[in-house]
Design brief:
The structure is a single chain. About 7% of the residues have low confidence. Strand 7, helix 10 and strand 8 form a beta-alpha-beta unit. It is globular and about 80 Å long. It is an alpha/beta fold. Helix 4 crosses helix 5. The longest helix has 40 residues. It has eleven helices and eight strands. It is 53% helix and 14% strand. It has a domain of 223 residues: Rossmann fold (3-Layer(aba) Sandwich). Strands 3-4-2-5-1-6-7-8 form an eight-stranded mixed sheet, with helices on both faces.
């Protein structure tokens, strides 16, 4: 079975670094690993220093800094626009059936029905759709997700339930419309009306809903999926992480680890400002451990500049793997 690891948290805390470093070390440990960026503002390419696109790409072992005899490392940056056509086909198919029964909804109204009034966007839908594809249809041992910032992440986990209810309503309306339309055609044309009336919608509402339900099953399977929260050693970040952890647990998503990034660890002896910042960060880390006594807390040191390049990622991966 494929394992899933999600890294989440607010924007700019280092989720991409953690996801890329974890994937790199898992591949080096012998596991075929895919790292996925679902954040619309992709930075995974920069971290791995390679060009990525909407289809998974395997990094060469030598270039990735892993043993060619061990696992493989793949990476992909999800393009939400690449998946919107599929959902537009669903909307058009539903609209056509409703219109055939005299129910006048334009395409925009049908799309709003699909959204169910929820703020879910195409990036979340694409992430859920690809989660199922990568896990159920791919050949990887582990899929590591660099998720969007906190608000988007919460929407991602809310989407299966919200979309499921909306699609159930849509399917019911579609069925009613089809029965009315079929009855009208039969009354006018007789039994011959049924010949040639079939239409291949390429993607049924029911199969789409089943795919979202499968995504929820994967997200809430504690044997396969783990969510790790990344935060900075700041008071507001602690409060926000509390809300995120609580929301994930309410959704029955396994949360085992917090990663406290950019902790100032080595102050200069003759720098009072550095010493003060170091002590403040130590206090925040202690507060985090006290706030989340049942979670594993891992700290990552503050580094100068952007965390890019495989050598740097490997050192981050060592810290994520070894510290407990």
């Amino acid at each position: 079975m494929t394992d899933c690891i999600f890294y989440g948290g607010k924007g700019g805390v280092g989720k991409t670094t953690c996801a890329a470093a974890t994937a790199l070390r898992l591949a080096d440990a012998g596991r075929d690993t895919l790292v996925v960026s679902t954040d619309p503002a992709h930075s995974l390419s920069d971290s791995l220093e390679t060009d990525l696109g909407p289809e998974p790409r395997e990094l060469e072992a030598d270039a990735a800094g892993i043993d060619a005899a061990s696992g493989s490392l793949w990476a992909v940056e999800i393009d939400p626009d690449a998946r919107t056509e599929r959902y537009e086909r669903l909307a058009r198919a539903l609209a056509a059936d409703l219109r055939s029964a005299g129910i006048r909804l334009d395409d925009e109204q049908v799309r709003r029905l699909f959204a169910g009034g929820a703020p879910a966007g195409s990036d979340e839908i694409a992430a859920l759709d690809l989660l199922v594809e990568y896990v159920d249809e791919g050949d990887w041992d582990v899929v590591v997700f660099d998720t969007a910032p906190t608000g988007h992440t919460l929407r991602l986990f809310d989407t299966p339930e919200v979309m499921g209810l909306a699609l159930e309503t849509a399917e019911s309306l579609r069925g009613q419309a089809k029965r009315i339309g079929d009855a009208a055609r039969t009354a006018v044309l007789g039994p011959m009306s049924m010949f040639g009336s079939g239409r291949d919608d390429e993607e049924s509402l029911e199969s789409f809903r089943a795919r979202l339900e499968r995504a929820r099953q994967l997200l809430t399977d504690p044997e396969r999926t783990e969510f790790r929260v990344v935060l900075l050693p700041e008071r507001m970040a602690i409060a926000e992480s509390e809300r995120l952890v609580a929301t994930l647990r309410e959704a029955d998503v396994r949360v085992d680890r917090l990663v406290v990034n950019r902790v100032f660890e080595d102050p200069e002896d003759d720098c009072s400002r550095c010493q003060s910042r170091h002590e403040r960060h130590l206090e925040r880390v202690a507060e985090i451990r006290e706030t989340f006594p049942d979670l594993e807390v891992v700290t990552l040191p503050e580094r100068e500049g952007e965390v890019q390049g495989l050598e740097t990622l490997l050192s981050v991966g060592d810290r994520l793997r070894s510290e407990r």
